[in-house]
Design brief:
Rossmann fold; mainly alpha; two-stranded parallel ribbon; 4 helices; 38% helix
Length: 112
Amino acid sequence: MKNIRHLENNKNVKIVKGDLREYKLVKQLVKESDYVFNEAASKLVFSIDNPRYDLETNIIGAFNIVQAALDSDTRIVHASTGSVFCSSEKPMKENHAMNPTTPYGISKIAGE
């Protein structure tokens, strides 16, 4: 929250504490929105410790947004990760072959 504290009194921003896995909430919020920026994701390290949470957040969460937007004019911007390509210390181009090697990378590519 400290990263968005400066937006708390902005009339153009609505801050909602919720869970992307709760379809009813997601559907309501998507219906009220022109754009949805999906930046939600489980963390790479956490995905190894709790792959179910990772799967539910990164796959089901993304699915909930898309499904909720089907009957609306809402536009979706979905954040990806380099982990959909592979694990590497070297920079990769956007057209690099996708070959995820972690539960996190697999769940993110599934969400895409």
